[in-house]
Amino acid sequence: MNKYGCQSMIAPLRTVLVKRPDEAFAVEDPQVWHYASRPDLPNAQQEHDALVALLRDAGAEVIHHDVPQPERADSIFVFDPVLITEQGAIILSMGKQQRRGEEAAMAQQLEALGIPTLYTLHGEARAEGGDLLWLAHDTLAVGQGFRTNAEGLRQLHEALDPIGVHVIPVELPYYTGPDACLHLLSLISIVDEQLAVVYPSLMAVSFWQELQRRNFRVIEVPEHEFLTMGPNVLATAPGRCIMLEGNPITKRRLEDAGCVVMTYKGNEISLKAEGGATCLTRPLLRA
């Protein structure tokens, strides 16, 4: 079986990379990192360990990202520095200044795992994984906001066109400005065949229409649960998913749509630091 390949948001999760919170995550100045408050490291580690247990219960092999990254608090959000395709890794370029350098550490980790690099973004290109959504095996939606720019989009097209992947740009709103983290995946998660959890109020009309053209059914997240990352849902297989606890309406709507939902506690690793279950995991193999 292949060691890597992940051109789906919902195919059964076989191998996933995570990074356990360390001293770098317990930031002295939360405002610099746009955190709600300073994370409590022991509690953060307990929460992360429990999330890892859920991933293993779902049948995934869990690999720990162990390349040292001192002073990079956001490095626990391993989804963002890389895109994994069936032909290898595309090393991205972080839009948040404090996250620059995570890309090289990720490339080092993937090399150690035997995953080749297909392409590395360079120059003025910026793109983060949170803006990248597989709509289909050969279709990648790319959010265009403060974290992913036009040159990032161009280079992603350059990297993906030779392997037959079509790129769709998706405009993102200003919302609360450049310091906040609004990714495309802040607004949508695909959880089953043609089924997505969405927060439509901040979604571009053209992208909403694209979902309709593709015959997606949508589960709408209420406004107060958008603020607690209700749309940030990780599928471990079609119709099976993990989400942050404390979003009961979205959870019930997922279950009413036929999904099996597991929840994790994320007061430290998610609510304080603006990253949900998807952000905390980098699927390496879905098959």
Characterization of this structure:
Helix content is 24%, strand content 25%. The protein has 287 residues and is α/β, with parallel strands linked by helices. The strands form five sheets. The protein has a three-stranded mixed beta sheet with strand order 2-1-15, covered by helices on one side. A three-stranded mixed beta sheet has the order 3-4-5, covered by helices on one side. Strands 6-7-8 form a three-stranded mixed beta sheet, covered by helices on one side. The model has no long low-confidence stretch (mean pLDDT 97).
Task: Give a quick set of tags describing it.
287 residues, alpha/beta, L-arginine/glycine Amidinotransferase, Chain A, 25% strand
List the helices and strands and how they pair.
Elements: E1 13-18, H1 30-33, H2 41-57, E2 61-64, E3 82-85, E4 88-91, H3 102-112, E5 117-120, E6 132-136, E7 139-144, H4 150-160, E8 166-171, E9 188-192, E10 195-198, H5 205-213, E11 217-220, H6 223-226, E12 233-237, E13 240-244, H7 248-256, E14 260-264, H8 267-271, E15 282-286
Parallel strand pairs: 1-2, 4-5, 7-8, 10-11, 13-14
Antiparallel strand pairs: 1-15, 3-4, 6-7, 9-10, 12-13
Shape: globular
**Main sheet: which strands, in order across?**
2-1-15
Cα end-to-end separation: 9 Å
Q: How many alpha or pi helices?
A: 8
Taking pLDDT < 50 over at least 5 consecutive residues as the criterion, the unreliable ranges are none
Helix/strand structural class: alpha/beta
- Kindly identify the CATH topology: L-arginine/glycine Amidinotransferase, Chain A
Task: Please provide the ordered H/E string of secondary-structure elements.
Answer: EHHEEEHEEEHEEEHEHEEHEHE
CATH architecture: 5-stranded Propeller
Give the strand tally.
Answer: 15
Mean pLDDT: 97
Note the quaternary state here: single chain
Strand content: 25-35%
Q: What is the CATH class name?
A: Alpha Beta
What name goes with the CATH superfamily?
L-arginine/glycine Amidinotransferase, Chain A
C-alpha-based Rg, rounded: 17 Å
Please outline the major beta sheet. Answer: 3 strands, mixed
Number of domains: 1
Helix content: 10-25%
